Every structure is written in structure tokens, then in C-alpha cells.
Amino acid sequence: MHALSLPTWWIHIASVLEWMLAIAAIVRWGERRQEPQWRWLALAMLPALVSAMAACTWHLFDNTEALRGLVVFQAFTTLIGNIALAAAAWQLLPAPRQA
Amino acid sequence: MTIVMPLFVAPLQGLAAAISAASSSALLEPLAGVDPAPLFVLSLLPYLAFLRWAGRSGRFPPLALRGFQFTLVFVAVTIVAAVVAELRFGHQLADVDPLHGGAEAFLTAANLMVLLGFSAAAADAPQPQGHEQVLRPGEDGVVHPEDEASVSDPR
Fold it and tell me: CB within 8 A of B45, min separation 6: which ones?
């Protein structure tokens, strides 16, 4: 785990924590507004979290060539996550209706 | 929020453990031969669609939307940092710590904007009061089923 300095580790951990808290904040924001569609956005943010875990795991193992597959997995989950985000934003487009 | 957090953390720790377990098996090996670069480039397209629709919906807190947009700045900085790492230092970005941390800090900033945008907005939003909720025209365009009589043709 020494490929990354302590500050760089903290920057990574902060990014991930913020993303998780943002997911929780979006759920809360949707509940406050009584707009259940926001839950889909929160759900759509989860693949990026998986992607981040893959990247951090690779860093944890000093970016070893043996785990190069993790980077590919990260890229794949990033693609899936962004498609999910686009879909979530799409269903937020029309006027919301009571569920 | 404090209740939700542990719910997320526990499965994530399991996931991280699963990933490291999988890595020691042959699961990741077929993946290792794939070039991830086209996947990262391709993932930009749905993200641009996301930004377009998120903006057009008019329903995102402005700061949160700016945060999601700022993520593109992180991507741009990462690309430049990766090229510098390769040409100037002869290493991949993840192995040049200052460049790696410096680039990732842009994502930390972007995510912070998303988090603060939704947190502040959620705190400001009035707690709905059952059926006393008043619809102001143009505020959010919500039409609740019980309001249908009032929006139907008055003839």
C-alpha cells in the first residue's frame, strides 16, 4: 500500500466517502420532496462506488501488474455506472407523478 | 444519514474482500488482456447524456449539478496528468504519487460539490405536511392525483 502517499490515500478515501454521503443525501432529498424518482439516481450511483472499490483495491496492492484486470473491471463498471446515471436523469425529465 | 452509512459500508467491505479474493483466483485474468482505455472513453458518452438530461430536468440543486459537471474537469486533468506521468516520468499515473493525488483531488472537489448541493438543498426543503402541501404554479410542475380536478378543463 506504499505506492500511494498518505495524503493521496486520504484524497481517495474522501472522494469515496463523499460519494456515499451524496447517495444518502439524494435519498433524503427525494423523501423530503416526496419524489420517489430520486431513489433511482441514488441507485444509479452505486456502480461508480464498485468502480472506486476496484481502483482502491488495485492501489492497495501497489498497482501490481498481476491485478491489471481490476483496472479493466473499473473501466467497465464506470461505463455501466454512467449509463445508469443517464437513465436516472432521463426518468427525472418528465413531470413527476405521485407514486 | 448516520443510519444509512453502516448499511453501505458493510456490503462494501464484503465487496472489497470479494474482489481481492477473486483476484487471487483466475477470475480477473481474462480481463487483464483487455485495453481499458476505450472503455473509459466510451463511458464519457453516457455521462454527457446524463449531464444534458440532468440540466434539462431543472430539478437538480445548482451546486450539485455544477459538481457533476466539474467531474469532467477531473477527467480532463487526469488525462493531462497521465500523459505527463508517461512522458516526463516514464510511469503510469498511479505510480507518480503527486500527479496521481493532485488529479484525484479534483474528483474530491467535484464529489464535495455534489454532496453539499444535495445536503444543503435537503436541509432547506420544507418538510411536506401531508395534504396541506400547497402547489405553487411553476415551482416544480408537480400534478398530484388529488389535484386533478383543479387542473382539468373547467367547462
Answer: A82
Cβ neighbours for A20, distance < 8 A, ≥ 6 positions apart: A49, B5, B8, B9
* Contact criterion met (CB below 8 Å) for B114 and A68: no
For residue A88, the chain B residues in CB contact (below 8 A) are: 50
Closest CA in chain B for residue A80: B43
* Residue A34 lies in domain: 6-91
Mutate to test the interface with A, among B53, B95, B113, B148 (most CBs of A within 10 A): B53
B96 in a structural domain: yes
Burial of A69 (0-12, 13-18, 19+ CB in 10 A): buried
Q: pLDDT (tens digit, 9 = 90+) per residue, B32-86?
A: 888 888 889 999 999 999 999 999 999 999 999 999 999 999 999 999 999 999 9
State yes or no: ipTM above 0.90. Answer: yes
**Cβ(A46)–Cβ(B140) under 8 Å?**
no
A29, A50, A93: residue with CB nearest B57: A93
Q: Flag whether residue B135 sits within 8 Å of chain A, measured between CB atoms.
A: no
Query: What range does the domain containing B39 cover?
Result: 34-123
In a domain, A38, yes or no: yes
* B52 part of a folded domain: yes
Question: Are B47 and A85 within 8 A, CB to CB?
Answer: yes
